[in-house]
Description:
By secondary structure, the chain is mainly alpha-helical. It is 54% helix and 4% strand. The protein has 2 domains: 9-67; 75-127. The chain contains 4 helices and 2 strands. The protein has a two-stranded antiparallel ribbon. Helix 1 (9-32) runs antiparallel to helix 2 (37-67). It is rod-shaped. The two termini are 48 Å apart. Bound molecules: zinc ion (ZN) (2 copies). The site of one zinc ion has 7 residues, from strand 2.
Amino acid sequence: MSYPESQTSNSAIAFGGALMLTGLAAVVVATGASHDSRTFILGGLLLVGGVVRLTTALAADARRRREHPVDPDDPRWHDGIRVVQLAGKTCVDCGRRIIFGTDGVSCDVCHAPAHVDCAEHHLAQVHGPEVAFPFR
Ligand SMILES: [Zn+2]
Ligand SMILES: [Zn+2]
């Protein structure tokens, strides 16, 4: 049996859990069928292997989550103070109010408030499509 290294963390966790449960079941069966030492040892090995596999996968998963706590490309995670101040302002693109601060961004070119969804349209309409995406 060989395990591909390219497994996603979720399948690695599921695999480790399944391996651990299989080993646990084998240990229980071996204990019930008294003195079946070979099944007991095999079950114990599976159990330990499953625990190791599971903890390794969980550790890798936790490390990935720590490195990327939020989507770094999400404009709402940048400059929280400026975002809060946009609540109640009128969107420069569609003319409607920005109800929640998290719905708004300010244009880096003209500093006008705009909805997150309207910002790209405003940029293309007012500043031209050649301007690099400045909304953060
Ligand atoms: Zn808008
Ligand atoms: Zn602008």
